[in-house]
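Example record for the data management plan.
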Amino acid sequence: MTRDTLFMLPPGFEDHDRREYCPECAEVWGVLNYFPSLKETLHIIYVPITHPRAPIVDLLGAGDYNAPTLVLAEGTGTPAGVSFKTANGRKYIDSARGLAALWAARFGTPVRRGS
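Corresponding structural encoding:
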């Protein structure tokens, strides 16, 4: 099975001379813990807080990419009503809300409140 690749910041990292976490990544981890079967569809890679984030650049080309970013597996269909970006010929989503919309459309998870 070909998996989508999810790039996340680690649960804790050093920035601004203190330990921090990414609120969007924490939201995504919450969804993955609510619906653990989603993890089976993903290849999860942690990226550093600093740019450039080489593993993302390797797939999408040069750019200032957000985390979380989900890069769809090649040949993966795009459900109607889900917004995608494209770089280097690859489709990706770079927000927790976008990921929630994709997973709801693709796997039937509940829709994020406020969406």
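Summary line stored alongside the record: The chain has one domain: 4-107.
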